[in-house]
Amino acid sequence: MGHHEGVVVFVPMTVPGDIVDVQITKQHRRFMEGRVVNFVHKSDKRCEPVCKHFGVCGGCKGQNRPYQTQLDYKTQQVCDQLIRIGKLDIPEVRPCLGSEQQLYYRNKIEYTFADRRWLTYEEIAEELQIPLGTVKTQIHRARTRICEYIIEGGVL
Question: Please, is 34 exposed, middle or buried when counting C-beta atoms within 10 Å of its C-beta (0-12, 13-18, 19+)?
Answer without folding.
Answer: buried
